[in-house]
Design brief:
The protein is mainly α and 261 residues long. 78% of the residues lie in helices and 0% in strands.
């Protein structure tokens, strides 16, 4: 279990981990540990947000740091998948052509365009959320719901790796899926249920700000990946994770604006 945690953190974050030679059995619980990366990211983001507020930083500075912090901590691995997937989707080519684009190490114009759109959208939403939070609308709930999105996106991503059809038989996602045991599937499902229950207990109906967009994007992810690629890959999983987190942020901000009225 500890080796699985170390592997996941070393793969999906820049947080230093012990170095050792990986064995197949070390991957057995790796997807169970994936939500922990989201939990650590949420904790670091919460600490940075609180510190910046204490220092009297402006809304734009805080929003900028909250936008780039997930990219820094994850090493940009999920954004890389998002950009590759957008390049493939915007090619409107055959399934084989799209899969070739995902493997291409070169960056395309559509990847850059959509990365800019994503970043500007996230920055704008964070700026508005911080303004609403400082003004006291819905208290600290807004920030906590967005942080919950970091954990939920990774939990759902783990479920997809364990249960969705793969676009190809080789690659990181296929290897991870084959290495997981039945216990891992049960643990990840239990984590998702526990997370939803905790959100409902603490935030009541407002927990839907995180649950509904996350589940909706998850269903869209499955439908899109099956129709356009014949299954999922690591890049497409990264696309889902980025879009899921942005959707939770968007829904939370819109809900707060409606609440303000």
């Amino acid at each position: 279990m500890f080796r699985s945690i170390a592997i996941v953190f070393s793969t999906y974050s820049i947080i230093p981990m012990p170095i050792f030679k990986w064995k197949e059995e070390d991957l057995r619980y790796s997807m169970c540990a994936f939500p922990l990366v989201g939990l650590v990211l949420a904790a670091i983001s919460y600490g940075a947000y609180s510190l910046l507020l204490c220092l009297g930083a402006g809304n734009l500075l805080i929003a900028g740091i909250m936008t780039i912090l997930p990219l820094i901590i994850t090493g940009g691995i999920h954004m890389d998948g998002y950009m590759d997937t957008m390049d493939a989707l915007c090619s409107y080519g055959s399934r084989e052509k799209k899969l070739e684009i995902l493997k291409d190490p070169h960056i395309g114009a559509f990847a850059v365009i959509h990365a800019i759109i994503y970043t500007v959208t996230a920055l704008s939403l964070w700026s508005e959320l911080i303004r609403l939070d400082i003004e006291g609308y819905m208290g600290n709930m807004l920030f906590c719901l967005v942080m919950a999105g970091y954990v939920m996106s990774r939990t759902l991503s783990a479920i997809s790796v364990l249960s969705f059809k793969k676009a190809k038989d080789n690659g990181m996602v296929s290897d991870l899926s084959k290495a997981q045991g039945t216990k891992c599937r049960l643990i990840v499902a239990a984590i998702l249920i526990l997370l939803i229950v905790l959100l409902c207990v603490f935030y009541g109906i407002y927990s839907l700000c995180a649950v509904i967009p996350a589940i909706s994007v998850f269903l869209l992810y499955r439908r899109m990946s099956y129709r356009r690629f014949g299954g999922i890959t690591g890049d497409i999983a990264g696309w889902f994770l980025q879009l899921c987190e942005l959707s939770v942020l968007f829904t939370t901000v819109i809900t707060a604006m409606i609440y303000k009225l």
